[in-house]
Predict the structure.
Amino acid sequence: VLGCGGGGSPFVGRIRALACLDEGKRIRVISPQSWCEMSTDLDCIAVCGFFGAPLVLIEKLINGKELPMSLKCLQEVYSIGGYNNGTLTNTDGAVIEEGDDVTYIHDYQPEDRMMNANITLAGKHINAIGCVEIGGMNCLEPLIVAAQMDLPLVDGDGMSRAFPELQMYGPMIYGQSAVPSTNCTDLGIRGVCLKANSPKNVEDHFRTWLCRKGLGLVGGMSTPPLDKYWLNKAFVFHTMSHCRGLGDVVLKARKQKTSPVEAILRECAGKLLICGKMVDVTRVTEGAFNRGVLRIDGYGSDTGRVVWVDFQNEYLIAREGHDKSTAKILATVPDLIAIVDYETGQPIQGEETRYGLRAAVLLLPSPPLMRTEEALKVVGPSGFGYNDIEFQAFGEYKQCKRIV
């Protein structure tokens, strides 16, 4: 639900997480407050997530090594490459190039490799893993990385939902550097961004990099680690608890044969925009994004209504009207537009939309962190090129019940 159609399908992540448990590994979650209490200035949180076009994963599964490889690559940029302020003191295995306002390595393969037991990053000790975004597959895969490293996952994320671009990650909205960052493909090609003028430059570089022949449009990415300052300044707390709470109310509603949609709306203080059938989907994959528009015609009490939803991996804008060009704006980012199966409450990912699906379109409030003037420049309608649309906040964000 919080993925707003993006973040990749959680189905594969769920199976991989269950496999981790079958192997005897532990999946643990720690509250941000507890992490701050137990950590020193020499500790950090390693942050990772998948990056690219989720539609590709319908035909080509991940191999499961992308995120661990990207994290290890970032560690080696520091421990072997001697990264310092955009440069490497040791360039073994690195052909450093420049272009489009970034300094980068197409494929970083140092001859000497770091030992697997090493859990340091940027001179600090990694004692937890963090989520870039809480939506879709990207809320489950970091759990698996944490289990493989026998570390807890911090109960929170950098968006409170899924967004399609790197500069929309909370810490980077509020000033954290986006370099060094690494991106690794399923074939083991390890791209590194060493220097950039802005997080948007890193985003554009890695999108272009993934579109190169043979790289597959999807990679595992690791960004600079979080310390206490960035965790408290720009992370949305307890979103993993929020996910668990949503899943719990949906499952209870199914068992009690009540409406899962109404259960979601109560849990999130949300609003139902329309119930209807998808009658048209226009979708293309370009620039490592899934882009398109879908049309939903209402039924039941919504008969005669038409809602259009624009998406770029995630659902961005909802409008109502028979003519899209003159349709009234119902909802915009950063508030959450979620589409679920009306009968079961099962979220419908952007890549899963198709003619004939019967769905409910929901509007959920975004947290205060994403509604500031500073944030709206990046995650508001203008951040996606909708310069003629002004964000109108819906409702108040409902703090979820903590599970840890």
About this structure: Residues 185 and 215 are 6 Å apart (CA to CA).
